[in-house]
Amino acid sequence: MPKDGPQPVERDLPTDESRDLLGLVRDLVQREIKPVAAEQEAAGVFPRETFRLLSEAGLLGLPYPEEHGGGSQPYQVYLQVLEELAAARLTVGLGTSVHSLSCHGLAHFGSKEQRTEWLPDMLGGGLLGAYCLSEPSSGSDAAALRTRAVRDGDDWVLNGTKAWITHGGVADFYTVLARTGGEGAGGITAFLVPADAQGLSAAAPEHKMGLNGSPTAQLHLDEVRVPDTRRLGDEGQGFAVALSSLDSGRLGIAACAVGVAQAALDEALAYTAEREQFGRPLADFQGLRFMLADMATRIEAGRALYLAAARRRDAGRQFSRQAAMAKLFCTDAAMAVTTDAVQLLGGYGYTTDFPAERYMREAKVLQIVEGTNQIQRMVIARHVAGPERKS
After folding, report:
1. Are the C-beta atoms of residues 244 and 107 closer than 8 Å to each other?
2. Tens digit of pLDDT for each residue in 33-56?
3. Which residues pair with 219 in a beta bridge?
């Protein structure tokens, strides 16, 4: 390892502008995010001021058009920004990814008038979003959702409960999927619901093993009335909105996973270089060097996989299969790398005095959110082996 410790990741960036952007992000991370990450996570502090700062810096709308307040950056650049944020604090990286996910429906399925009216504030006006698909009885089987929206003149009235909502109770707006028709995927419609809508409330945040600074809560909709102008896309198009959003969102999770894994590797490298046993640094023992080599290889492979999928997206090509592969591989890699980091630190790795145990706890949730890794395997299998045959 270099004498001055782990080095910043060598980034593959397409333009001078994107290289300057990464420099800005790294500076912001070192000044505003990393110094307080451990303390705030332990205390369960939600970093709302950090998100306002990211919004002011133009970092909450990077992959969206400049005309609507976005950064007009290709996805391959946006994802590398996410990786840097997640390496400093997953609450911030994941929160940025969720915010981007919550803007996707409006940006890609909303009318020109809707985008002009709402998107600038969502992308760069200090607002924070949440995405509401899962429910207490329909997680992986998203098409079975029960939240219902009933037409009443020029309005829709929404009733139901959403579950596992990142930013639930602290978001300024919610992209909500609700049933407007019959059973199955064809009866679902998307709505943009403001947080101050009457009848909208959040339950107490879930008590989680990690990501303590990021509130996850159920969202209750009790006779919530929204005008038809807040419907995103056509009636019955909601499931297509959801799938399109999730393909992009899965790449965000993959990038966050690589960021957490990189942070864990950097911690392990620093520790094994300084800690001595039997008269020499731990990093000189072949068995431990092999562990470090495997960790670095998993990270490099994961980064290459999510970037390859991002470049397909940037080129306008289909990337659903590649997104599922990236989410699957990168999050499994993060779990393996963070577990090894704890092992390399020995007893210290199991204490809260070092961040390795936090990285390990945080990596676990990335194998679950935005489609469990079992669901990713189902998606990939359908692409490579065709749909399952019914018996």
Report:
1. no
2. 999 999 999 999 999 999 999 999
3. 162, 202
